[in-house]
Design a protein that fits this description.
heterodimer; A: alpha/beta; Rossmann fold; Alpha-Beta Plaits; 2 domains; six-stranded mixed β-sheet; four-stranded antiparallel β-sheet; 14 strands; 26% strand; B: mainly alpha; elongated
């Protein structure tokens, strides 16, 4: 399969700060790439270069087989962009916004109008079609923004933090729309700070931090880098723990980690549900003491913490969304 | 589509978009016209009696071309604030990611703002007629007078477009342009005859293009005293030519410069 996006050795400096320090990545046609990283990592700079808004200082980039500098206009005709802030004209109605963008893609008037109607329907905005976008909720604006970026049926779509600032319900709806687009064969580059979002939507991921790629692969590959699954439980009485540790130690692939203060037991294992069943059998007689037992697979928050030494959300973000606490001492 | 036709078509789309905003936010028009009306009334009735004019002309006739010039020049600062607002809201990013003409956003903006100026000048002319202003020339000359005002303001719009692209905050654009436009319009012959100015200021005012726009408009509306001497500074002797020269120079510098900056401007 061809690559719809090819990025080689991208460097971008803003004055003394280096925003991108040699980024390489490729996105296969028809796939979704999640570009992950904390605020300020350089995600948006990558998107700006790929969408011809910004010129790189070094390196080169191709989108849909076209060089983003030499063939900038042809690139613009082949892509759609939804930026971090819904770029809709708030005084225009939803319909007028889409019609305007269609006209600027040089669609004939009738086609621009037809396309606007189709997209309003697809993004659940028919009822609001003739209201100025000023009256739209945040979720509706984002949907209108994405609809605008789809007017020209782009081969490659760039979504820069498409759900930042949305409430959970709008976020779920947005995920469904994005998944639908991906199923339809559109190549998508998606930047996000939400690891759950990438996990859910992206085929492959590239993690960047301070302008450099620090990891890449599928969600499973990234998780495997951090370690496999863990058996975890909490007991009602810490006094029961030592006996349990003895009983369970043989099942682990590494030493168990016991936190007496929070009465928590955690141990790397392999073997899936069978291990859990075996553990419960060995704890027979003491199970009354246990609540919250389970196998926990590392999520991308663990991955991020392991790769960067800090949680995804802690660096200069204004989103109050504490990352799930990582397993105590479970990550090297 | 040829590239010229494409630029025109894109510019028309953007102009339409900007005019829709004027329609949806009537406050814009109300305030764009209220303050000139207020100026007309204040100057006409508060200062009108205190300002010495050559015999043979009333203050309303002297004043109106000055108010016209001040208003359209102020009106053109809207361009800068609107461009800054579009930048802030990410709309310029969207436009720049589209395969559209690189000049269309600025052309559409300046043309729409010229449209706003047409509206304010109409309202002011009607107010002026109500307080004693008269056109004492032919229809063709009078139209020439309005055109001179609008063309000069259009050039200022392009200068303000560059300010908007560089400053990026609508409020700052407004304050910054006020600092420049206010002295430029007051240190001119717009409200008082230049004879009363101290000499250095008077020389500045004589070469100030706002003075020549006003002088040119007065002549074209027939609001000068026939036979009264004009200051012998060359600009005021040839106000229309001098104004058009300024207009041409401003456009020749700021159209390419603004488009060039626009091509490289991204939000934040």
């Amino acid at each position: 399969m061809n690559d719809a996006i090819v990025v080689e050795g991208l460097v971008k400096r803003f004055g003394a700060t280096t925003a991108l320090d040699g980024v390489d990545l490729t996105v296969a046609e028809g796939s979704v790439l999640g570009l992950l990283g904390p605020n300020g990592a350089g995600k948006t700079t990558v998107v700006r270069i790929l969408t011809t808004l910004l010129a790189a200082d070094e390196g080169r980039a191709e989108v849909a087989g076209l060089d983003v500098v030499r063939d900038a206009d042809a690139v613009r005709a082949a892509i759609g962009l939804t930026g971090q802030y819904a770029a809709v004209d708030e005084y225009l109605t939803g319909f007028e916004n889409l019609e305007m963008v269609g006209r600027l893609y040089r669609l004939p008037k009738a086609e621009a109008r037809t396309r606007a109607g189709e997209l309003l329907e697809r993004f659940d905005l028919v009822d609001a079609a003739n209201r100025p976008a000023k009256t739209y909720s945040g979720g509706m604006r984002r949907r209108l923004d994405i609809a605008a970026s789809l007017i020209n049926r782009p081969r490659v779509l760039f979504l820069d933090e498409p759900t930042t600032g949305l409430d959970p319900r709008s976020r779920l709806a947005m995920w469904e729309f994005i998944a639908e687009l991906a199923d339809g064969g559109t190549t998508i580059l998606l930047t996000t700070q939400y690891l759950e979002e990438a996990d859910r939507l992206a085929d492959r991921m590239v993690v960047i931090d301070r302008g450099q790629v620090i990891a890449r692969g599928t969600a499973d590959e990234l998780k495997a880098q951090v370690g496999g699954e863990r058996l975890e439980f909490t007991v009602t009485d810490a006094a029961a723990l030592p006996g349990m540790v003895e009983a369970l130690r043989p099942l682990g692939v590494d030493e168990p980690n016991v936190d007496v203060a929070s009465r928590r037991f955690s141990m790397p294992v392999s073997g899936g549900a069978d291990v859990l069943a075996e553990a419960l059998r060995r704890l027979d007689g003491a199970t009354a003491q246990i609540f919250d037992i389970g196998l926990r697979r590392p999520d991308l928050d663990d991955v991020f913490l392991a790769l960067t030494g800090h949680a995804a959300e802690e660096v200069g973000t204004d989103h109050e969304q504490p990352a799930e606490p990582a397993v105590t001492g479970g990550v090297r | 589509m040829s590239s010229l036709a494409a630029t025109l078509s894109d510019s028309a789309v953007i102009t339409k978009r900007n005019l829709i905003k004027v329609k949806r936010v009537p406050d814009l028009i109300v305030f764009a016209t209220l303050s000139p009306i207020m100026f007309v009334l204040l100057f006409r009735y508060v200062f009108g009696g205190a300002i010495n004019l050559p015999p043979g002309i009333n203050y309303a006739e002297f004043l109106l071309p000055g108010i016209f010039a001040q208003t359209v020049v102020f009106g053109s600062t809207v361009t800068g604030a609107s461009i800054a607002e579009d930048l802030q809201k990410g709309l310029i990013d969207r436009f720049r990611s589209l395969p559209m003409s690189r000049a269309a956003v600025l052309i559409g903006r300046t043309v729409a703002d010229a449209g706003l100026n047409v509206i304010s000048i109409t309202v002011m002319a009607l107010t002026g007629l109500a307080v004693g202003w008269r056109i004492n020339s032919s229809v063709v000359e009078a139209l020439g007078g309005f055109l001179l005002l609008l063309v000069f303001a259009y050039a200022i719009s392009w200068l303000m477009a560059l300010v908007g692209l560089l400053v990026r905050t609508p409020e700052v654009v407004n304050n910054a342009s006020f600092m420049v436009i206010f002295p430029l319009t007051f240190a001119s012959n717009a409200f008082v005859p230049l004879e009363s100015f101290p000499s250095v200021l008077r020389t500045f005012a004589e070469w100030n293009p706002v003075s020549t726009v006003v002088q040119g408009a007065r002549e074209l509306f027939g609001n000068t005293v026939p036979g009264a001497p004009v200051p012998d500074a060359w600009p005021l002797q040839n106000p229309v030519l001098y104004t058009l020269l300024w207009t041409a120079v401003i456009l020749a510098v700021f159209v390419p410069l603004s488009v060039r900056v626009y091509r490289r401007t991204a939000a934040r």
